[in-house]
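Form P-L/3: holo structure prediction, ligand 2,5-dihydroxybenzoic acid.
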Amino acid sequence: MAQQEPEEQVELSSSTRSHLEAQNLRPLWEVEDTMGNVYDDLEPDIWKWEDIQTAIDNIENDIPIDDLPPGFQRRVTVPINTGMENAISNTIYVGVQTVSPGENAPAHRHGANALRFTIDGHEEMKTVVAGEEFPMHDNDLITTPQWEWHDHVNDSDETATWLDVLDLPLILDSLNSTNVFENHELDRQPVTKTQGYWDSQYGRARPADEAKDSSIPGPFEGNREPTPPYRFKWRETDETLRQRADNDTPDPYDGYSMAYVNPNTGSPPLFPTMSFRSQLLNEGPTDAHFHNATEVFFVIEGEGATHVDGEALEWGERDIFVVPPGTPHHHEPDDEAILLGMSDRPVYEAFNFYTEAEA
Ligand code: GTQ
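OUTPUT (holo model):
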């Protein structure tokens, strides 16, 4: 928050002061300077894949999933922003999860929204969401909407790796709310849907009756359309990006940029709290801009740099980096690159508080 010159000291009488203190009251001019100081400012930062991979391998060698504390058997390495303790940003959390051949990350559900972006996938690596097995192929994005059961089952003979993205810091820290959480009584939830069910319900033909329940799941209420369980197959997303690049003009700040829409509404954001894009950068540096939303990026393909407030974050495939709110930034691909862009912009928009400008 912008700090103003300290006002001339205003003296209160000692009886006024002692009454205020005894009753837990304070005058505004004494509290306003302390607002906005709960968190350290977010730093621009990058995590190189090589370092993440070493951490993943070390952890995988040290601990089988079954040895992790019951209730949260997830082998995840979490990038932590300087000045924070538990996440890459104040709103968006990313983690890199691995499941070894034959392992199973047991079923649970929670109030936080989540998605998986597959890094090393396999037809027999399945995340099971709301009764359906979703095969995880490289670069597929699979939603785990709030309060849907999910477990991750590796029936392949290779270690699988993916990016977990959740709105945990927003819920747990910024809102200081509880991540309502429940373990399933079974490690593997029953598979009750045929493969492709959820995808098939959100195409051009949709259920004509009321069979499809689109109420907000679990104990929650609100006014946003719920996000269904859904797999955005990379094959299709990539084709959409390429068609766009062959036919259209790029956005000055984001290149050829496709939003992952909420399949329920056909519009972004994918979740009420987080929005996602795939961005193809192949026409040199983008223009610089800034916005009050936080952006986190994962490098799907290519190499380059993102210049944040004069600092160059040099990235290659699979690196993860963060652009703090309010910092001028632009991307500079070496040749052609594709980024996964993640933003908390919908939170700002919900309060009519989003703003961006050319830098
Ligand atoms: O796989 O369900 O990285 O619940 C953090 C919280 C992964 C998961 C994370 C989770 C999960």
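COMMENT: The domain at 45-358 is CATH 2.60.120.10 (Jelly Rolls).
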